[in-house]
Amino acid sequence: MSGTASGPPAGLPARLEVAGGIATITLSNPRGMNGIDKPLTQTLLGLLDEAEARPGVRVLLTLAEGPAWCAGGNVAAMASLADGTHDWIRDVGADVNALIPRIHESRLLSVAGVSGAVAGGGLGLMGAHDVVLATAAASFSFAYGGLGLSPDAGGSFFVVRDLGYRRALDLYLSNARLEAEAARNMGLISRIVADDAALRAAVAGLAAGPAEAIAETKRLMRTAAGGLLRAQLEDEIRTLADGTRGAEFREGLAAFLERRRPAFPGAPA
Q: What is the pLDDT of residue 1?
């Protein structure tokens, strides 16, 4: 079956290709580590509309170019915005909070194909997918505490759902970085695949499954989880934005930019 490509104009951060019942969205801002910002969220929302409207599409596959699948929020932008960081996060967060349920609740079976670094808000974007297939090159960083901030993009929903409260909290408290095997053993990802060809073969197998039965299975499991995602997303982004007004974030951001260990206010010397 011949494939078709949707041409976001050159320079936009993602593109869509459709072939064999699979709509592939590729994050294409490797210089920006495929970070979450307004151009990315707006582009992804548009591409999701297009993918779901295409006849015959059964699976949504999200890939990425470069060394990072998604590195989360743009810390450099936060540093440059200073007192404007709160409003910037709320603005981008409004799109994020629309995007995450769109992926999670899509009638399509969604697959994150990860071969690179996932950090911060990227964990929520990844977690919104139904299946996560990763190569051994993938890594997963819970990089909020070092900045003096709390999770967003559904991270506190999906990671707790998949790993349980104590394990999820420990990963965030320790600013942990997991390699692919540890992430699979914990349940953060579905499977490790050998390479891109193996990943695409696995996705083709999923596309050959019973699409209507899979959609209903997804719906039943979402219902069993309590349907709390949207409320959690709003709580996350409000808390994250408010956190940027505090002394802990100011110290965490300075330490990040200066490549040193943070000395948070009130912490024992």
A: 35
The mean of the pLDDT values for the chain is: 90
Residue 224 pLDDT > 90 = no
Return d(Cα 113, Cα 126) in angstroms, integer: 9
Distances (CA, A) of 81 to 72, 248, 250, 253: 17, 17, 12, 12
Q: Which one has a higher pLDDT value, 10 or 99?
A: 99
User: What's the CATH number where 192 sits?
Assistant: 3.90.226.10
Structural domain count of the chain: 1
Residues 105 and 222: beta-carbon distance below 8 Å: yes
CB 66 within 8 A of CB 33: yes
Nearest to 30 by CA among 71, 61, 62, 60: 71
Global pTM value = 0.88
Distance CA 204, CA 118 (A): 24
CA 225/CA 161 separation, integer angstroms: 8
In the chain, the amino acid numbered 107 is: R
**Contact status, residue 17 vs residue 57, Cβ threshold 8 Å:** no
**Position 86 pLDDT exceeds 80:** yes
**Where in the sequence is the domain holding 213, given as residue range(s)?**
4-196+207-258
Beta bridge pairs of residue 59 = 22, 109
> Is 33 within 8 Å of 67 (Cβ atoms)?
yes
